[in-house]
Design goal:
This protein is mainly α. It contains 15 helices and two strands. The chain has a two-stranded antiparallel sheet. Strand 1 and strand 2 form a beta hairpin.
């Protein structure tokens, strides 16, 4: 009843049903996976895949060839990380837009991306002073752990700043997020000022985003955290449908609004923190994916949340394939490509919603 009421509030017209929309999203993810696995600096046609898979059961007598090494040790973990990153960012964006009741909301509003960036930048520039005896092999682990912790810490700070007598005030959270984001960017600017040329290059590469560091161990960690976030976030669909009618109406319908806010923020912070710590900053996926799903399937969060995760996964994999292909053998920063896609759409959305902003 609640979902139907919320859907009616959005004024659905010629839109796909939830099952059809999610099936379309799954088909898009499959197509993106096939395209991403086949294309790159080293092309591996789908016709070669059965032979490569057969080598897992019966290894070649002369050892694995270059196609085997590229496919299983570089491309597949990269595709898996791309799917997880896009799913996490898309789901987090849908949660934030549902929570703020604003299609222009983005996970970056709560400061998780900027907090992760500041912590990663501090680790790159000052890490040698903090733990000079740390083995080189553990440096990347320290960077990922610092970025994840920084994102969660800043999100917690923004959440605490938004607490008022009546619970979490979303307007205060938005303003606190803007202020904390600005402070984090100022901190990054200072770190860039005091860094060496090599450190500055590493900070800039991390800020531009990339799936180039994908390893199966990284994939497993991100899968666990994004899976936990998805498990928490997807269960909030009906509550977000009720909140779309207004917090007072949601309370009358028996929805625990404050608990829903905490769970949505926690799920978004977990997903974006894990992704940003592993890939750097990949912008605009969390903004555009939920909006496109809403255009196709309507405002029902039972479709928007999983649909945004599927569409986000497909977008990141396609953008990464383009990044690996367009200027080969070099590679474009992934964050640059997603910005090229996201910024024009964001401006179009601003024009569409200018009467409400």
């Amino acid at each position: 009843m609640t979902a139907r009421t919320a859907a009616a509030a959005g004024g659905p017209s010629r839109r796909l049903g939830r099952g059809a929309a999610l099936s379309l999203g799954a088909a898009l993810v499959l197509a993106a996976f096939v395209f991403g696995a086949a294309h790159g600096a080293y092309a591996i046609a789908p016709a070669q895949w059965p032979a490569l898979l057969a080598e897992l059961v019966r290894p070649a007598a002369d050892g694995p060839g270059p196609a085997h090494l590229v496919f299983f040790h570089i491309r597949l973990p990269r595709l898996a990380l791309g799917l997880l990153a896009g799913a996490g960012l898309g789901l987090a964006g849908a949660l934030m837009q549902g929570l703020f009741r604003n299609p222009l909301a983005d996970p970056g509003l709560v400061g998780v991306s900027s907090g992760a960036a500041l912590a990663a930048g501090a680790t790159i520039v000052l890490g040698a002073l903090w733990w000079p005896a740390l083995p080189r092999g553990l440096g990347s682990i320290a960077l990922v752990a610092a970025a994840f912790g920084g994102g969660l810490a800043v999100t917690l700070l923004v959440y605490l700043l938004a607490q008022g007598a009546g619970g979490t005030r979303m307007a205060l959270m938005l303003l606190a997020g803007v202020a904390v984001n600005a402070l984090a960017m100022a901190g990054l600017g200072y770190l860039s000022f005091i860094s060496t040329d090599e450190q500055l290059r590493n900070v800039q590469l991390w800020l531009l985003g990339s799936l180039g560091g994908a390893r199966w161990s990284t994939v497993a960690t991100v899968a666990a955290l994004v899976g936990l976030a998805a498990g928490v976030g997807l269960r909030q669909a009906r509550a977000l449908n009720a909140i779309a009618l207004g917090e007072a109406q949601a309370v009358l319908l028996g929805v625990p609004v404050e608990r829903t806010k905490r769970l949505c923020i926690l799920a978004a912070a977990l997903a974006v923190g894990a992704v940003t710590a592993s890939t750097g900053i990949i912008g605009f996926i969390g903004l555009v994916a939920p909006h496109w799903v809403r255009l196709v399937a309507g405002p029902d969060h039972r479709a928007v949340l999983p649909g945004a995760a599927l569409l986000g996964a497909a977008l990141v994999v396609l953008a990464d394939a383009a990044a690996r292909t367009l200027v080969q053998p070099a590679e474009l920063p992934l964050g640059v490509l997603t910005a090229f896609i996201g910024v024009p759409l964001f401006l179009a959305m601003l024009r569409q919603f200018r009467e409400r902003v």
